[in-house]
């Protein structure tokens, strides 16, 4: 009986070793370890053994069983692993094939510029104010110290709708409206982005519709040095820490003193090139101290309150920042143009 | 304003300050210098020569053979093609080795067998614009006056050894439209004194008032009119120095009399006009508003019909000049003129601007009057002109002048305080620094403690209030010297409004969904303005549009987006999706401003999804765009307030269009562009939606509140229903939701079958219903109770039966 068990063990282990797949291995398990298997069969003859031999034989039978099932387990792991390997080998892909494109759109570059400026000034305590694109002559001109017949109205030939209403020529009327809303009290710190319209033929540098973004601060002790400091923060954040600014006297009817701000030319570093027309400086925006007439008309005591205002064109900034050469690109919406601005900076 | 660096030195010492440096200084302290042009840039080797002999070229009809004395003892043969070359002329000769504009090098040459040692030059060949060259030399070579010394540098003789500063003047700085004004400005910048002309013309015993009587009817338009009379004038060409001054400033020389008036205009900024006294036909000057329909032929040979908006100079009856703009042809100074009536007048800006604008006529005179001339220069300018008339035209100036003077202009007296100056600028200036700045400007000041009172000369009409004084102090102190500070005082929280925040969410959502943001024009054509309008109102129209295409304000954005699609598809882009947020304009009958409503619109065409090597190509369809709208509402927490209702709208496919409802109110539409419209735009299937962003962003939403994650499982029941083809899935869903009671948590369509296995006119719609009770695990009986109600309601209300 002992020999028979040993024989069975050797026989089973041989079969385990040669089993080619999991099914064969399972067959071995069933045929040798199953209830009707040969080991069980052998053990049925245990009754004929002596009481001494019986436990020995029982132990041996268990040894044989354990040996077989242990090997089966090992073999099973081997075969499973082999099966996995086989499957993996059959599942090779070409990782260089292109991935599934994710549809993405993007911001219009002007929106990117405007939002960047908005966020910059929000960080400095400004709120964002908006106003109508069709404006009253009063807010667009008169409240800004541009009475009817003022020569400076020629500077911005406008689209009138009626005698008293027109397409706003700048976002400054929002300043007038906001000041009026504050009823002569400070502080006012606002930034006003929006579309504006002028009677220009569309060409590479002119557009009858364009964007503007303006800022206004009115309070009891606003100084021109504050304007200079604010613009410097803006210029460095927007165009780079290494940029310098300079203020040049200029004229706007709604500010006095009035200035224009230039930034040092990035391309030539100030030595003069075609972008800065050889001057080393690039004009970025107009600004100034709010004209006392504008303050008074909006209900402020100009003896007590002062303010500064500045205004700029997002198109111009985008053109300088990204090197865009034709303002019409912003309104043609060519996907080959728009796509280039889907990168988050 | 073009300022000659050389000319400027007649009024101020510019020793040690180059034109470039001067330009930089002027720019930084007040007036932008837009460019500095070297007039002799790239030119050399041109001398004044004397044509000793001139005969026809033996072998060429149109050429002349000349012998020219170059002044250095050298006489050379030059072949010249100019028709006006002649013996005895003093001319500009580009000698062998000379360089002309465009790097044109002069070499010894043989022309039709004759040697030529140089070139006799026209002004254009020396870099002067043809329109500025005197008419008699415009088509040929230039002749110097006979007294010109030969052998000298011709470029110097023509004052081309000069640099021109181009000033970009803002409307307030009319004072710098004259050489004297610029001299004052430069004097203030450099802190130097200036030399002014001091004209003292000799006069004859005859009096101007015996020749002419001046009356001004329109005193408001013309507070001061001064007329001088100059007799025995010999009209002829001006000397070279005068011609070149004018050309450098962009004015064409005509004859000495006209050139003198233009010279004074440039020097004093005071426009003058010379009439041929004998052609006036009367001894009277009457200044008045024109009569309606009155006609004048101006010097440019154009007949102009006038209105009472325009001011005219008349001889008592007929207009002889359009005041301040242009003289009349009937009284023009010509070569036969002997007596000149010289007008120096102060016209106010408004009336001149109106005439200039109405007649599209901008002259050197009108542009100065429009911005305001200095009334104090009217008389000195006339004196200076008279002096030059004697000197350059051999004239005899009559004593005194005929005039009408109702002028009441006094220098402005403006006060400010040192405290205010420092408060506004943020500086720490001392009073003596402020005084010094005004002294440099040649403004008189009086200081009383902290207060400074400034008497502003009339030439600086732009300075009227204390802020103007502060600007003068600031700009001459130098903005570079201002400290750099940030506003102090009460701090304010910076933020976006809720609306603005949500609008950014909408934009990011649309972009995340795969759409590009477009920005299009608000102005559009009559056809497009009302197309796809949600609100059918009459569009707002411009009073004077520039073109038909941009004459009205849009009522919808979709037509603009369709144009964008058309543009891109026509340029090899197969698929494109764009959206825009922006205002549409709704005319108000009662208010004067239209209502501006912000809309959101989108348009998609071509493939929505494609992965070519996996063989996937999914074109856009209604449900792609509808999904985007649904997602948008969900993003804003408005999912439960959104409905779609089948609709038929102009320009859209009648079977594939819906209205978008928010809380039962129509706020937009979605649909396929009508095939006819698609065809006319060369577009394949295209879907659009537009809705009121304002309504969407202002809709009330419930505050965000956490609900517990369910502890008990939900149970699904799927049903396939057979219904009439026309039955809307949405209606069935409503029936199910209403009948399902509180246990029914979710209903989803998961199949639609309209195939041939269905009975004619029927379709099958399958729904998946999810039941759930937060308190316990549902039993079959619980569900059956609710589910049976659903089935009964479906049968009763929609005739829907379970598919067998």
UniProtKB/TrEMBL annotation, chain A:
Q: Which residues bind Mg(2+)?
A: 256
* Note on cofactor: Binds 2 magnesium ions per tetramer.
Cofactor(s) required for function per UniProt: Mg(2+)
Residue ranges of every copy of the Aminoacyl-transfer RNA synthetases class-II family profile domain listed in the record:
111-340
Q: Which of the seven top EC classes does this enzyme belong to?
A: ligase
- PROSITE patterns to which the protein is assigned, alphabetical: AA_TRNA_LIGASE_II
Q: Name one GO molecular function term.
A: magnesium ion binding
Q: Name one Pfam family in it.
A: Phe_tRNA-synt_N
Q: What is its main location?
A: cytoplasm
Instruction: List the keywords (alphabetical).
Output: Aminoacyl-tRNA synthetase, ATP-binding, Cytoplasm, Ligase, Magnesium, Metal-binding, Nucleotide-binding, Protein biosynthesis
Where found? Answer: Cytoplasm
Record has 4Fe-4S as a keyword: no
Q: What is its EC number?
A: 6.1.1.20
What name appears for this protein in its UniProt entry? Phenylalanine--tRNA ligase alpha subunit
Q: Which organism is it from?
A: Mesobacillus selenatarsenatis (strain DSM 18680 / JCM 14380 / FERM P-15431 / SF-1)
TrEMBL record, chain B:
Per the UniProt record, the source organism is: Mesobacillus selenatarsenatis (strain DSM 18680 / JCM 14380 / FERM P-15431 / SF-1)
The catalytic activity, as recorded, is: tRNA(Phe) + L-phenylalanine + ATP = L-phenylalanyl-tRNA(Phe) + AMP + diphosphate + H(+)
EC number(s): the record gives 6.1.1.20
Its primary localisation, in coarse terms, equals cytoplasm
Please report which protein family the annotation says this sequence is part of. Belongs to the phenylalanyl-tRNA synthetase beta subunit family. Type 1 subfamily.
> What is the protein name for this chain?
Phenylalanine--tRNA ligase beta subunit
Q: Which SMART domains match?
A: B3_4 (SM00873), B5 (SM00874), FDX-ACB (SM00896)
Q: What does the record give under GO molecular function?
A: ATP binding; catalytic activity, acting on a protein; magnesium ion binding; phenylalanine-tRNA ligase activity; transferase activity; tRNA binding
Domain B5, which positions? 409-484
Oligomeric and partner information: Tetramer of two alpha and two beta subunits.
- One short Pfam name that applies is tRNA_bind
Where does it localize?
Cytoplasm
Q: Required co-factor? A: Mg(2+)
Which segments constitute the TRNA-binding domain?
A: 40-155
